[in-house]
Write a structure and sequence with these properties.
- The protein is an all-alpha fold.
- It has 17 helices and no strands.
- The protein has helices spanning about 5-25, 30-35, 40-75, 75-95, 100-110, 115-125, 130-155, 165-185, 205, 210, 215-235, 235-245, 250-300, 305-315, 320-330, 335-365, 380-409.
- Helix 2 (about 30-35) packs across helix 3, helix 3 runs antiparallel to helix 4 (about 75-95) and helix 6 runs antiparallel to helix 7.
- It is globular and about 60 Å long.
């Protein structure tokens, strides 16, 4: 396809604006929930965990539907529907008078939230097999750059009111929708499409996709643990740093912007040198090891500035994800890339039901005023343990996966 490079540029900008909109609201959620419910930050984290889980439940149900629809009708219309849904979500969050409306907004976003699923399938459509792992890094780069801008802007906008970041997120997301409507080309040729099948689009049925490709089941198990472990940071970072280091929205935003900077460097630049040098398999091992070290250091940090330093090994661990994704993608036929990405997102959504509830509960359990042992970093330590177990599972399965790849070539 002659439009490979421009198409990847379009999808990068689309995801970038999407992530900026999402990142803007993160620094204000703890204080907003705390004010709405008149509770402490640790108590607010429990509600925050359920908000994330409600989004994940809907995404678990509807992501395989969207993934399969993109295999029949193309990536472009599904991506546009997803972006529009997020815009409506942010409008509801900006106007929500009670926490009930926060849940309504998150449910709508979960139903339509297939932007990253479709983007991954889009990238698979326009990438040569040997370039897929590197090009999947575009997702991480957009995520990283969006998080440089989004949380920093959100922290600044919060000075003008806790609802202002939601308005900004709505405007950006709907502008992104307009950008996609007029600019984004379709990536899936007519001859590569297949008919929609409900049997392959129900949430549990989509997980059966992995059974058809037994060679990647071990890697799927590894991903499950990585996804759950990741919520030690994703679901508790703002609450943890506000509770332990007394950060305000500004510092939460700055720290997440630093995360974005590091992720953009790793996924958008370093990965293109590291993957060819280490290879996909070694990149998985090194990445998971760095993740585990990062979690451990987060959990035992005693000063706020340490969190910035410890983000370096944690973000370098980001080489593991694209490597695993590239290995799995190479085992699947071109006509089923959308279904693969839909199944992976469905799996991520399923673990995102468990992960936030588990990690925010651990944070609350060891941070509440009446806790027998006060240790806010408990969720981070749990993330390190899960990552180490994931590395063991990956080690046991990668030899079989790579052997199958060689025998099929």
């Amino acid at each position: 396809m002659s439009f490979h490079r421009p198409a990847l540029g379009f999808i990068f900008v689309t995801l970038l604006i999407d992530v900026i909109g999402f990142g803007i609201i993160i620094p204000v959620m703890p204080k907003l929930i705390s004010q709405m419910m008149n509770v402490t930050i640790p108590e607010a984290s429990a509600y925050g965990g359920w908000l994330i889980a409600s989004f994940a439940i809907m995404q678990f149900i509807f992501s395989p539907v969207m993934g399969n629809l993109s295999d029949q009708y193309g990536r472009r219309p599904v991506l546009l529907i997803s972006l529009f849904g997020f815009g409506i979500d942010y409008i509801l969050l900006a106007l929500a008078p009670t926490i009930t409306w926060l849940f309504v907004g998150r449910i709508i976003a979960g139903i339509m939230g297939a932007s990253f699923t479709t983007a991954a399938a889009y990238i698979a459509d326009v990438s040569e097999p040997e370039k897929r792992a590197q090009n999947f890094g575009i997702i991480g780069a957009a995520f990283g750059l969006g998080f440089i801008i989004g949380p920093a802007v959100g922290g600044i906008l919060a000075q003008y009111g806790l609802r202002v970041p939601f308005v900004a997120a709505a405007v950006l997301t709907l502008l992104n929708w307009l950008y996609g409507f007029f600019i984004l080309p379709e990536s899936l040729p007519i001859e590569s499409r297949r008919k929609f099948q409900w049997a392959r689009a129900n949430p549990l049925g989509s997980l059966k996709f992995f059974i058809r490709y037994e060679v990647i089941l071990g890697l799927v198990a590894s991903l499950v643990l990585i996804y759950i472990a990741g919520h030690a940071v994703q679901s508790t970072w703002a609450y943890y740093t506000m509770e332990k280091f007394i950060w305000n929205e500004d510092w939460v935003g700055y720290s997440l912007a630093f995360v974005g900077l590091l992720v953009a460097i790793v996924q958008g630049w370093l990965i293109r040198f590291i993957l060819p040098s280490l290879g996909q398999v070694r990149s998985v091992y090194v990445g998971l090891g760095l993740y585990a070290i990062g979690f451990l250091l987060f959990g035992i940090a005693t000063q706020g500035w340490m969190m910035f330093v410890f983000l370096i090994p944690y973000c370098l661990g980001g080489i593991a994800g694209p490597s695993l994704q590239g290995i799995m993608s190479s085992q699947v036929s071109p006509k089923e890339q959308g279904e693969l990405q839909g199944a992976l997102t469905s799996l991520m959504s399923l673990t995102s039901i468990v992960g936030p509830l588990l990690m925010t509960w651990l944070f609350y359990r060891f941070s509440k005023p009446e806790a027998d042992i006060y240790f806010p970093g408990a969720a981070m330590i749990a993330g390190a343990v899960l990552t180490l177990v994931s590395a063991v599972l990956a080690r046991l399965s990668l030899k079989r996966t790579m052997s199958s790849s060689v025998s099929n070539s």
